[in-house]
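re: ur msg from earlier - yeah i can do the NDP complex, just paste it... oh wait u already did. ok heres what im feeding in:
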Amino acid sequence: MQNLPRLSFLGCGSMNEAILGGILAGGFPADRITATVRRADRAAELRQRHGITVLAGSEDGGANRTAAAEADIVIVGVKPVGVRAMLTEVAGSLAPGAVVVSVAAAVPLELMEAALPAGTQVIRTMPNTPAKVGRGVTALAPGSSATPESVEVVRSLLSSTGRVVEVPENQLDAVGSVSGSGPAYAFYLAEAMAKAGVELGLDPELAAVLAAETVAGAGAMLAEPGADAAALRKAVTSPNGTTEAAIRVFNEQDLPGTIAAGMAAAADRSAAITAELTAAS
Ligand SMILES: NC(=O)C1=CN([C@@H]2O[C@H](COP(=O)(O)OP(=O)(O)OC[C@H]3O[C@@H](n4cnc5c(N)ncnc54)[C@H](OP(=O)(O)O)[C@@H]3O)[C@@H](O)[C@H]2O)C=CC1
Ligand SMILES: O=C(O)[C@@H]1CCC=N1
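and the outut:
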């Protein structure tokens, strides 16, 4: 892979489109990218929005095989339950030396490698949707045949979507619970803050703007070099002031415990999906 790789996104919904958006914003040429989806209207939307080639209507798998055959890096972005069928479909069409990257939660490397020709390079990742704006974080775990050079190429490609870290595969359920699902928790907080603002008498539109800008602004501060969440929180919290009154109630009602319980449920769900997929193989 001396030159810029050719990419194919097999399945291009929320997550793969976010990665695609981050990569394109980083200057990757649209004419080296193909995506596949099932629905013609979704294909048209992606073509119009990104100027990439999109193949749709893959009832017989033809679109996926065509896209896979022309790619150096194939990024599989279907739901976990569809990954094995997708890999089986394209197994015979992959270009020699192609690298298969999965963004699917809970689908083990072993299961993916078993669906592909022996020796296929597979990399399992757990990205998140802020990839779209270059503020994502992706954890990756290389499969048994992935070479360090290929891992480096994928790492470098994904670095235009944000931070990239390598972890042992057995940490990916926990990673998914923190950063994979994490954007939803931040959006949930913004929704809850807006709702509470309305209950305090604010106009709904104003409350939504205040909550969204606050979560976004706090996120931007957290992204500054050396930022520390606890220190930033303390800087807002005047002794015996308003913030302290709010945090006291959050602690009395064990909000940290509620968050921990929710995140444990996310990690447990990931492990349960793995068990379901493995039992079905
Ligand atoms: N959403 C997120 O924040 C994150 C998701 N993930 C993982 O990403 C994966 C995708 O999730 P998400 O993007 O949310 O799901 P979406 O449903 O938004 O996207 C799935 C995409 O796959 C396409 N698709 C399904 N089957 C086929 C097929 N046979 N051939 C071609 N395309 C197909 C769909 O096409 P169509 O639109 O036409 O139906 C759709 O574009 C999951 O495995 C999930 O675990 C990981 C981290 C975060
Ligand atoms: O909810 C899900 O299952 C996926 C994986 C992480 C974020 N979204």
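cool cool. The radius of gyration is 21 Å. ping me if u need the other ligands too
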